[in-house]
Specification:
Elements lengths: L17 H7 L1 H4 L5 E5 L4 E6 L4 E5 L7 E7 L2 E5 L2 H8 L8 E3 L7 E8 L11 E4 L7 H8 L7 H9 L13 E9 L6 E4 L8 E6 L3 E7 L24 E5 L1
Antiparallel strand pairs: 1-13, 2-12, 3-11, 3-13, 4-5, 4-9, 4-12, 6-7, 7-11, 8-9, 9-10
This protein binds zinc ion (ZN).
The site of zinc ion has 8 residues, from loops.
Length: 247
C-alpha cells in the first residue's frame, strides 16, 4: 500500500499532545457551559470563542448534518483550510485531529477534543465528519434542479457572518459535521449516507486561537432522502435544529 504523502519529522508542530486534549474534553473536565444556544432548522448562526474555550455542536433532536466555517477573530484573512487539513489528517475527522488555517498562516486553529459517533470507516469506505465535500449552495442547486433554494448552507453561513462584517467571499470550504461520505469505487464520485447521529450526539473542539465560528443546519437535513436527481424531494421533515454549547 502507498504511504501517506504528508508525513512529519519527529518534533514537528504536527505532533498532537493527545493527553492534553483528553484532559480538556468536557466529559473528563466536567466543565459547565458558559453559553448555549439553538440554531433552528435550515438556518445559520455565527459566534465568537476565546482561545482555550471548547465548543460542543449537539444533535439536539436527532440526525442533522452541519456545515462549519472558522476564522481568526482578529484577522479574518486567516481561515480554516479544508483541503490542506484533508491532506494532513484524512478525509474524515476524528478526536485529536486538528483543523489547519490557510496560507501564509498554516497552523492548527481548532483541535477535536471529543465526539460521540465513533463511526470509523465502513464497508463502503465511508467515514463521518466529512472533509471530502463542501457546502451546498444556491448556484449548484439551480444548475441541478432549475429551482431556487434560499436556505442552502452557503447562504445560511453568509447571512450568519454578516454581523461580523464578513461577506460572500469569506465563506469557505467546510467541515461537514455528522455527515457520512465517501467516493464511489468505480468513478470516485462523492456520495453521502444517512446521518448516524442520535439525539444528544455531539462533536466537540478546542479553540487554539480566538475564533469567529459559523454553522449551517443543512437544508437537506439528515441526508436520508435523495436531494437531487431521480426521486428527489424537499426533505423538510428530516431537517432538525442544532445545539451549540460554549465551555
Ligand atoms: Zn447543506
Amino acid at each position: 500500500m502507498p504511504a501517506p504523502l504528508y508525513s512529519a519529522n519527529e518534533g514537528s508542530p504536527f505532533a498532537v499532545d493527545k493527553e492534553f486534549y483528553a484532559k480538556q474534553a468536557i466529559r473528563n473536565s466536567g466543565a459547565s457551559p458558559l453559553k448555549t444556544f439553538e440554531v433552528p432548522r435550515r438556518s445559520g448562526k455565527a459566534w465568537t470563542m476565546k482561545a482555550g474555550q471548547l465548543c460542543r455542536i449537539v444533535a439536539i433532536e436527532g440526525p442533522q448534518v452541519v456545515d462549519f466555517n472558522a476564522w481568526n477573530l482578529h484577522d479574518t484573512k486567516e481561515r480554516f483550510w479544508a483541503s490542506r487539513t484533508r491532506q494532513l489528517v484524512g478525509a474524515h475527522v476524528n478526536p485529536y485531529d486538528q483543523l489547519w488555517s490557510c496560507l501564509p498562516y498554516l497552523r492548527p486553529i481548532i483541535t477535536v477534543s471529543d465526539e460521540s459517533i465513533h463511526y470509523g470507516i465502513d464497508s463502503d469506505g465511508a467515514g463521518c465528519h466529512d472533509l471530502l465535500g463542501t457546502r451546498c449552495d444556491p448556484y449548484v442547486h439551480k444548475i441541478l434542479t432549475g429551482e431556487q433554494l434560499d436556505t442552502c448552507c452557503h447562504s445560511n453561513l453568509l447571512r450568519a457572518v454578516q454581523e461580523y462584517g464578513l461577506q460572500e467571499s469569506d465563506v469557505h470550504d467546510v467541515i461537514n459535521i455528522f455527515q457520512v461520505t465517501g467516493l464511489t469505487p468505480d468513478t470516485e464520485q462523492y456520495f453521502v449516507k444517512p446521518c448516524p447521529a442520535k439525539k444528544g450526539d455531539y462533536f466537540e473542539f478546542y479553540a487554539e486561537i480566538d475564533l469567529i465560528c459559523a454553522l449551517s443546519a443543512c437544508p437537506h437535513g439528515d441526508m436520508s432522502k435523495p436531494i437531487w436527481g431521480e426521486g428527489a424531494v424537499d426533505p423538510l421533515d428530516i431537517c432538525r435544529p442544532i445545539g451549540v454549547e460554549i465551555y
